[in-house]
């Protein structure tokens, strides 16, 4: 039996040294030391030995097991080192290769246009004011000369949360909040950018869109001041060759009111498909603040006057960049956004 154990040790040593990978080495461990392994089978036969032979053979068996385990461990470490070197070699970095370009994010065109509009008015002395998007009916309608059941409310198809709470349909409520906080201080010169909500959804309308409204209140403000401010805005936004035109209109919160057109940015006012061959494009609404709006906010309409205006950021962006479908601004298509 001792000779058999020595033979197993020699065969195992030779097999271990010839193992080329971890899988083969594990097979050898199982074949020799496993429950059905060759060394285990020999040791099970020790019961037939005499009491004198058993200690000697047991000692030899332990020596053989330890020898095999040491050889397995040494070979395991060597194979792991070899595999590590192979992996390192396969994963090495060729520093002579050109680097991968890093794709940087860009500002969304609506963000770019909003910031450009803000900077124009900040340069004229306006400040930025903000307010809640979930608004009370009083601030969204009543304080702007739109009492309950006023037919002009139908001009703004509204998302109501309750009878008195709604998603704001314009940023005009910010003007009311500002006047209430400022009264009787003068002057007031703000622009109110933000999201607004109406039940519209087509190529030129979205249920959520962005507005920037402006308000100026002081003594002796006239319609000429409004025209001058908006002319400067049009020239800064679309180029110094841009002309403006004011057309009479109706808004409940201003009197008199006017729609503001600019000379077509596509044809320079000559007439084309974009401007329906009129040479003009509508860009915003404006007017002198209605006396009732001033009074509801605490100002004396006999002492002060003001003007207000409002524009859709999407409308300005579509004109500035020649976009024919508003929904492109919300689709998040990188092929589209990458052009800006």
From TrEMBL:
Please report the stretch or stretches of sequence annotated as the Aminoacyl-transfer RNA synthetases class-II family profile domain.
111-319
Q: Cite the EC number.
A: 6.1.1.20
Q: Which Pfam families match?
A: Phe_tRNA-synt_N (PF02912), tRNA-synt_2d (PF01409)
Task: Determine if Glycosyltransferase is one of this entry's keywords.
Answer: no
**UniProt cross-references to SUPFAM superfamilies, sorted A to Z:** Class II aaRS and biotin synthetases, tRNA-binding arm
Q: Which residues cross the membrane?
A: none
Example GO molecular function: catalytic activity, acting on a protein
**Name this polypeptide is given:** Phenylalanine--tRNA ligase alpha subunit
How does the cofactor attach, per the note?
Binds 2 magnesium ions per tetramer.
**In which organism is this protein found?**
Desulfofarcimen acetoxidans (strain ATCC 49208 / DSM 771 / KCTC 5769 / VKM B-1644 / 5575)
Keyword annotations from UniProtKB, A to Z: Aminoacyl-tRNA synthetase, ATP-binding, Cytoplasm, Ligase, Magnesium, Metal-binding, Nucleotide-binding, Protein biosynthesis
Q: Which NCBIfam families match?
A: pheS (TIGR00468)
Where, if anywhere, are coiled coils annotated?
A: none
- Describe its assembly: Tetramer of two alpha and two beta subunits.
Reactions catalysed, semicolon-separated, are: tRNA(Phe) + L-phenylalanine + ATP = L-phenylalanyl-tRNA(Phe) + AMP + diphosphate + H(+)
Q: Cellular component GO terms, alphabetically? A: cytoplasm
Where in or outside the cell it occurs: the entry states: Cytoplasm
Provide the cofactor list for this protein: Mg(2+)
In terms of PROSITE patterns, this protein maps to:
AA_TRNA_LIGASE_II
What is the top-level taxon of the source organism? Bacteria
Annotated Mg(2+) binding lies at: 255
Q: Hey, which family's this protein in?
A: Belongs to the class-II aminoacyl-tRNA synthetase family. Phe-tRNA synthetase alpha subunit type 1 subfamily.
């Amino acid at each position: 039996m001792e000779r058999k154990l020595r033979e197993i040790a020699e065969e195992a040593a030779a097999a271990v040294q010839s193992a080329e990978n971890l899988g083969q080495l594990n097979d050898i461990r199982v074949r020799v030391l496993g429950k059905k392994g060759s060394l285990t089978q020999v040791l099970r036969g020790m019961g037939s030995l005499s009491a004198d032979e058993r200690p000697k053979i047991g000692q030899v068996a332990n020596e053989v097991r330890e020898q095999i385990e040491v050889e397995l461990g040494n070979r395991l470490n060597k194979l792991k080192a070899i595999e590590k070197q192979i992996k390192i070699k396969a994963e090495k970095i060729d520093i002579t290769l050109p680097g991968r370009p890093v794709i940087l994010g860009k500002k969304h065109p609506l963000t770019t246009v909003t910031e450009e509009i803000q900077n124009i008015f900040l340069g004229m002395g306006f400040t930025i004011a903000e307010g809640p998007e979930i608004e009370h009916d009083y601030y969204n309608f009543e304080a702007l000369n739109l009492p309950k059941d006023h037919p002009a409310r139908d001009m703004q198809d509204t998302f109501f949360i309750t009878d008195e709470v709604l998603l704001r349909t314009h940023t005009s409520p910010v003007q009311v909040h500002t006047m209430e906080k400022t009264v009787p201080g003068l002057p007031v010169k703000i622009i109110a950018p933000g999201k607004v909500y109406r039940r519209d959804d087509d190529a030129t309308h979205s249920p959520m869109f962005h507005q920037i409204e402006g308000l100026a209140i002081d003594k002796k403000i006239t319609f000429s001041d409004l025209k001058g401010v908006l002319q400067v805005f049009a020239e800064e936004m679309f180029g110094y060759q841009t002309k403006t035109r004011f057309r009479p209109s109706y808004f409940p919160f201003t009197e008199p009111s006017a729609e503001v057109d600019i000379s077509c940015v596509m044809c320079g006012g000559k007439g084309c498909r974009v401007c329906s061959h009129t040479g003009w494009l509508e860009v915003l609404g404006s007017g002198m603040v209605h006396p009732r709006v001033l009074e509801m906010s605490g100002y004396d309409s006999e002492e002060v006057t003001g003007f207000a205006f409002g524009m859709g950021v999407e409308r300005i962006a579509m004109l500035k960049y020649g976009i024919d479908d508003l929904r492109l601004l919300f689709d998040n298509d990188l092929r589209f956004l990458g052009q800006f």
